[in-house]
Amino acid sequence: MVAPLSLRLLALYCCCAAVAPHIRATVSPFARAACRSAAAVPPSVLLSVAAVAPPTLVLLCSLSIELIKISTLNPKPDEEIDRAFKNARGNLKLIAPSIQKDIVRAAARETTKVNVDDLGDELFAVLVDEVRNISIKEKMSVCLRYVNKEGQVREHFLGLVHVSNTNALSLKLALESLLETYNLSLSRVRGQGYNGASNMQGELNGLKTLILKKNSYAFYVHCFAHQLQLALVTVAKKQVEIALLFNLLTNLCNVVGVSCKRRDMLHDSQMTKTIEALKSGEISSGRGLNLETALKRAGDTRWDSHYGTILRLISLFPSVVNVLEYVKEDENNSEQRAEACHLLNVIQSFEFIFNLHLMKNILGVTNELSQALQRNDQDIINAMALVKVSKQRLQNIRDDG
Q1: By 3-state DSSP, what share of the chain in percent is helix, strand and coil, each rounded to 5?
Q2: Which of 257, 236, 254 minimizes the C-alpha distance to 245?
Q3: Distance separating alpha carbons of residues 321 and 310, to the nearest angstrom
Q4: Which residues, including other chains, have CB under 8 Å from residue 83's CB and lie 6 or more apart?
Q5: Any idea which of 111-115, 289-293, 330-334 has the lowest mean pLDDT?
Q6: Interatomic CA distance for residues 237 and 298, integer angstroms
Q7: CA separation for the pair 310, 63 (Å, rounded)
Q8: Could you give the strand order of the β-sheet that contains 219-222, starting from the edge strand earlier in sequence?
Q9: What are 377-384's contacts with CB under 8 Å, separation 24+?
């Protein structure tokens, strides 16, 4: 027996202080019963949750666990709990869109409050990025990076702000407004981390410069992982053969993934080959293994995306060939048949296969560095040591092949 959705959501809903008052009044009998039963949560449960979650979420999890236990394991609950369940309205499911949004907003406020309280009066750095969402609205995301009272580096999401204009002044005003919401000030900022866009790091009127004019201690650092990706892509594309390789990878993604029918063919072909390989013992089964059934499109500003594309093509190579052969033989459009024929000839050539595996080895080294640079607890000393090791590994590839 599984507890109904109303019980699973109730713990989250009742213990968030930001929930609308009229909703709190409706579910207050449940809240009292839930809080009473929460005292009986086993210490082992609380410790396991506390290891990975802020205090607010510890309470949410403990209440959810106890409510599910009450509904499924206890045939004779005490009088107060029994009365709370009987007095609740039968249609109290808490699944209306407005209530669901209220739950999310309340949880977000409580979680952010815990993070800001952890920061206290300490100095911090801001990490800012902008993105356009699916509704074509520009959003600015802000994260805080700081060292807590235990000397541990922490990096937490602060908020997502809609900006009508992406010029530097608009971004600065939006950032200040968000910080003021949580009683934070630009005067406490000691670091800025953005990408390399001109409106962000421009020397004359970029966001970096505007903040430095107001706070000269807010030093700017261009994200190391972003610099690494841009440098790799730029250097690689200066070699004609490698530039051609990445262009062919893009064309492959376009041809194979242009329609649902071709994507389904790729998926079915790969699943068949995976089943055969499992039966023969060529590969092993396990959670999270053998799930790649589609080509991954690369992007110049997305970390490790080129490496992921190469790995995916190597894994799906026989299935990709099958799809291209189908397009070559059965596609009605003559231009697409010609393109599929050309791609088949190229990707099965020695030069393409050699360059594909060469870049796999090179990007494999730099991908490890990129992943390490993105760790929340990374520091400059360790980062530079990792750069030195990666340079030596690349030199070894150059010298020894």
Answers
A1: 65, 10, 25
A2: 236
A3: 15
A4: 29
A5: 289-293
A6: 14
A7: 46
A8: 153-162, 138-147, 124-132, 189-194, 219-222
A9: 377/152, 377/153, 378/153, 379/153, 383/224
- How many Cα atoms within 13 Å fall on the side-chain side of residue 78? 6
Alpha-carbon torsion, ordered 196, 392, 241, 329, to 10 deg: -90
Q: What is the pLDDT of residue 354?
A: 93
- Cα–Cα distance for residue pair 4/261, rounded to 1 Å: 39
Residue partners of 390: CB distance under 8 A and separation at least 6: 365, 366, 368, 369
Burial class (CB in 10 A: 0-12, 13-18, 19+), 318: exposed
d(CA 286, CA 109): 38
**What is the secondary structure of 192-216 as a DSSP string?**
EEE-S-HHHH-TTTSHHHHHHHH-T
Q: Return the percentage of the chain with pLDDT > 90, whole number.
A: 5
Between CA 300 and CA 232 the distance in angstroms is 9
Local structure of residue 2 (DSSP, 8 states)? -
Cα distance between residue 123 and residue 189, in whole Å: 6
Name the residue type at position 309: T
Which residue's structure tokens are 């981390």? 193
Of 171, 177, 109, the residue nearest 138 (C-alpha): 171
Which structural domains are found in the chain, ordered by start? 5-112 (no CATH), 120-222 (3.30.420.40), 229-400 (no CATH)
- Rg from Cα positions in the chain: 27
Q: Is 239 helix (H, G, I), strand (E, B) or coil?
A: coil
Look up residue 129 and give its two tokens.
Answer: 């990025």
The runs of H, that is alpha helices, within 135-189 are 168-181
Q: At which residue do the structure tokens 């041809």 appear? A: 255
Q: Are 188 and 215 in contact (CB under 8 A)?
A: no
Indicate the SS3 state at residue 345: helix
Q: Rounded to whole angstroms, how far apart are CA atoms 298 and 246?
A: 9
Question: Among 244, 266, 269, which residue's Cα sits nearest to residue 255?
Answer: 266
Beta bridge partners of 155: 145
pLDDT in tens, 175-202: 999 999 899 998 999 988 887 666 777 6
pTM: 0.60
